Q: What sequence folds into this?
């Protein structure tokens, strides 16, 4: 298809833009593949780790299904199905959301916290091996700046670094 729905010409990527886009995609795949493989060796998937680590950071070790799905970029139904599998493994449990009678909370269990604590060193080593240690400090700062630009809503300004 050569036209957008508004009948404006398509803005094809230039050679530099195409190389940058493809390099970004290859980088994401390489890092995710490596860290996913390493997490699988300790019995977790990347989504498992994301849910467990997010809940562990909360003072009450609980969060709404809606908040977690939004953080992961998943639909609530997809996360609900994944949460059911995590619940069957004893990593989390569901509880009614007192603020929303239709919603539920995902609550980190003691077994889930123990699993996360056991997996964290291997995960951190994997993140270092596949990403952090391959980059110079200035590369990391540039990547953080780029990430902010890509994920921030149009016109949003970057908050000051702590």
A:
């Amino acid at each position: 298809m050569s036209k957008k729905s508004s009948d404006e010409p398509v803005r094809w990527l230039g050679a530099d833009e195409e190389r940058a886009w493809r390099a970004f995609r290859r980088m994401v795949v390489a890092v995710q593949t490596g860290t996913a493989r390493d997490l699988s060796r300790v019995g977790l998937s990347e989504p498992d780790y994301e849910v467990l680590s997010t809940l562990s950071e909360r003072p009450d070790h609980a969060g709404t299904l809606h908040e977690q799905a939004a953080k992961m970029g998943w639909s609530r139904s997809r996360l609900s199905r994944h949460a059911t599998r995590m619940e069957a493994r004893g990593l989390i449990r569901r509880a009614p959301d007192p603020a929303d009678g239709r919603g539920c909370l995902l609550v980190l269990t003691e077994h889930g916290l123990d699993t996360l604590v056991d997996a964290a060193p291997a995960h951190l080593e994997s993140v270092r091996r596949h990403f952090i240690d391959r980059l110079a400090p200035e590369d990391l700062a540039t990547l953080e700046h780029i990430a902010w630009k890509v994920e921030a809503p149009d016109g949003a300004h970057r908050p000051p670094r702590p």
